[in-house]
Amino acid sequence: MKIYLVGGAVRDRLLGRPVSERDWLVVGASVEQMLVLGYKPVGKDFPVFLHPQSHEEYALARTERKSAPGYRGFVVHAAPDVTLEQDLQRRDLTINAMAETASGEIIDPFGGQADLQARLLRHVSPAFAEDPVRVLRIARFAARYAHLGFSVAEETRELMRQMVAAGELDHLVPERVWQELVKALGEGHPPRFIEVLRQCGALKVILPELDRLFGVPQPEKYHPEIDCGIHSLLVLEQAALLDADPRTRFAALCHDLGKGLTSAEILPAHHGHEERSATLVSALCQRLRVPTEYRDLALLTARFHGHIHKADELRPDTFLRVLEQCDALRRPQRFEQILIACEADSRGRLGFEQAPYPQAERFRRALSAAQGFDPASIDMAGLRGEQIKQRIHQGRLAAIRQALM
């Protein structure tokens, strides 16, 4: 029985990155031996155990054989006769297929260290093509390590294209697509995730609403980058600089989806795209089973970003209507995320990356004024129901009017 540190912990230590969690591989042991030693079984699809003291994960060495389409279609063989190299060979990327002994020796049968030096994301073996999730994972790694100059090896890009063409990604379940997307949104450079998926054709399969934006023009006067897809990537880049919360980044990414459905007769204008965007956001979120908090923030951003951009032109009653429809008085933190996504939208244009966004501050003033109005200051004598509600509305409106003078 031999134990090795494997996977991300080895990779990140060699990259000089902090190691947040460690995975261990056990070679030469059986399930029965692990149980006798006090390890607690937790694996559903293959033998994984928690160490009795550290509670870190220890997995038995295993091989996998493709038995059906999709990422669940595998037969797993875990036994004492499975070697370290056999286990490493089933992994996705060479930089993830290294092991480290207790003495610190690196075991690297597939050239992971060389690919770290070359800043390449390269598949270990043709078995990469058996698991469609790996297309999303490699795009996510590209987003994580973009700042270090990593790129996808050409032979791996070609293999990913072949997987898409063969329909492998059609077997992905919505929950797994969302899991990889939300992880990618939390990485250091999330636009790279979208770029890698688009290069191999996967974006059209998993996020067709976003893929449709590329090649669609918009007025150069307001959007020097012209292309709606490029704009969406620039907005996501700005959102990543402004807020680490993946909910805000998701809202920023989806805010303009409706521009992909603009009638060709009115291009490059996109009148009414906000409501079309909200409709597409709703459909996307239903398809991928997106959590409610992500969906609602994205819907509100899509629907109201046009109003917020025009803050200098709005009447006080429009300010209050936007605040009420965004439920900003009860959920000010979520409204702040909407404002951040709108600022990312404004800055996500060529030449506007450092431009101020006073519209957000104007809406913050309006919200603060509305919050500051005390309903107790109203004489409620003889008033009921709708009358009370209307008086409160009028009081908040007057407060906003005064604040924006």
What's this model, at a glance?
The chain has helices at 8-15, 31-36, 84-89, 112-118, 133-144, 154-165, 174-185, 191-200, 203-206, 208-211, 228-242, 246-254, 273-288, 292-309, 316-325, 332-347, 358-372, 385-403; strands at residues 2-6, 23-27, 40-41, 48-50, 57-60, 62-66, 74-78, 99-100, 106-107, 120-121, 151-152. It is an alpha+beta fold and 405 residues long.
Question: How would you sum up this structure, described in words?
Answer:
With 405 residues, the chain is of the alpha+beta class. Among the domains are: 1-112, Beta Polymerase, domain 2 (2-Layer Sandwich), CATH 3.30.460.10; 244-405, no CATH class. The chain is 49% helix and 9% strand. The protein contains 18 helices and eleven strands. The chain has helices at residues 8-15, 31-36, 84-89, 112-118, 133-144, 154-165, 174-185, 191-200, 203-206, 208-211, 228-242, 246-254, 273-288, 292-309, 316-325, 332-347, 358-372, 385-403, and strands at residues 2-6, 23-27, 40-41, 48-50, 57-60, 62-66, 74-78, 99-100, 106-107, 120-121, 151-152. A seven-stranded mixed sheet has the order 3-4-5-2-1-8-9. Strands 6-7 form a two-stranded antiparallel ribbon. α5 (133-144) runs parallel beside α7 (174-185) and α12 packs across α14 (292-309). The longest helix has 19 residues, at 385-403. The model has no long low-confidence stretch (mean pLDDT 93).
